[in-house]
Write a structure and sequence with these properties.
Helix content: 25-40%
Number of strands: 11
Distance between the termini: 31 Å
Strand content: 15-25%
Order of helices and strands: HEHEHEHEHEHEEEHHEHEHE
Strand order of the largest sheet: 2-1-3-4-5-6
Largest sheet: 6 strands, parallel
Shape: globular
Length: 295
Amino acid sequence: MTELENLYEVVSSVGGTGKLLTLQPGGNHGDSLIRIGANKFFDDNGIDTIPFRQGEIRDDKPPSFGLHRPEAYYKMVKDYLTYAKHSFSSDIAAVYIHGGANFNDFWSSGARCYKIVTRLFDVPVIIGPQSGLFGKTDITELFGDVDNPTHFFCRDEYSHELMAEALADVNINLYLDDDTALYLDTDDLPVQEMKTDYSLIALRRDKESADVLVDETVEPPIRVGDISIDEPTYESFVNVGARAQHIYTDRLHGAILATLLDKPVTFYENAYHKNRGVYEYSLTEHENIKFIYDS
């Protein structure tokens, strides 16, 4: 378990004795690991939090698709009413947006949350440990016109360097710390039984994929599936991993799940520096993991 010392220093000083409104920008079961790890960290350190919405699995990001669709308009109105409720009725000292990869060229759900938060709340904003890629995203525009003190955590040195260079003239506080899923221990996971039933190949199929080829001998029987999105529940995601004898994945939280379960894992690059960066910053000391660099 990582201590998240930098995150603790910022959250405790920025939030003080007030309440922290937490937002989950949506996503997959890996994002649930991030949120559950952060919530355990808050609980252990006596940090009082208010979730944006109730429920174990949440998706707090506002819609990005066209408002000509009735469901998008309904969700937009519902989101703004929920934000307004917290703004007027909750004693919020700061807002915390859960980490991940939701402020970059691939995914923007965290950035959408940030835009609304900074319009409706006159409080500091803390952005949990992130991976950033900003070739297309104009982050100076995103952060440059905001009055809210903003504290942005990176979970790898590549992202931190990119952010520091891009935001050299913007008043934003940058930090490094581990992915909050690494605050968890095996006992924090809903494991039914640890087994070695199969080799698990869990590769992503979306725009972050680097088209990985598993070019080593994989011991049968073999189970194939992107469990971060294919499994119907967070519990089944964890337990598919718990039944594997070896995991082959380019999913960051597939590798982190394997590490928490102490399962052997072969971990591959994704389409940018995210996997490599978190491996180098947080995972190199774990003997269960073998990282395959893209040659």
